[in-house]
Amino acid sequence: MAPNFHSLFSRRERQWTAKKTGERVSSSRVAIVKDAALEDANTGLTQLSAVANSFEELSSVVNSNGFNFDLRLEPFCDACSLVSDLFGSLGIAFKFAELEYVSKVNDLAEASRIHGTLNNILDFDVRNDTVKTQGSLSRNLRRVRLGLDLIRALFQNFLSSDDCSLKEAASAAYAKTCAPYHAWAIRTAVSAGMFALPTREQLLLRLNESDESAEKEMQRYIDASLPIIEYIDKLYTSRNIRLDW
Questions:
Q1: Which of 66, 103, 113, 197 is deepest in the core (most CB within 10 A)?
Q2: Cα(50)–Cα(83) distance, rounded to whole angstroms?
Q3: What is the DSSP letter of 196?
Q4: Tens digits of residue pLDDT in 42-63
């Protein structure tokens, strides 16, 4: 099923109209796309399928055009915004990740008005020697990439066995993707929060998925997100920027 981009575009048009008439409008890209996702729910599109559709669209563009293609920030941020709901479904254990992730996506969405593409924000920070500076767009992109990979690894672990609990899947995914870049205090808080994760059955209920539909949609995201993650990594490595930060 194709993503309901009409709802996204209609909502953007309403946002622009509201600005022109002096109405108060939220500047949060995540909030806008979440509202659109609620409209999608009315057409039978679940959170997982909306995320999978969006990343399949992105990966199709990247795979068709190759690494030299200049991926636009706006559709990238729209797709990433949908992932924030998946963090929310995991509960308090990943609340810190959700808050950081949403903040970084919103910063990149705001930057899309000026910089336009992912390549441009790397070029900007390289020129200004701010790639690894706290709050820089390149650092924000790196953190969003970690969030995408965390969900990908969690899904991969979740599907590896019917006996794999969400706690086991999430703990292994966090240890592999994000823990190496987090301070001791954050790692400790995450470890403690793992005990508050929902059960496998509770997660499926929150996502409005069955075992079969969840497996299908999670696998779609796993397959579609990997080319995007690799694309982002190459933005750094092609500029001789190491990824160990």
A1: 197
A2: 9
A3: G
A4: 457 899 999 999 999 999 999 9
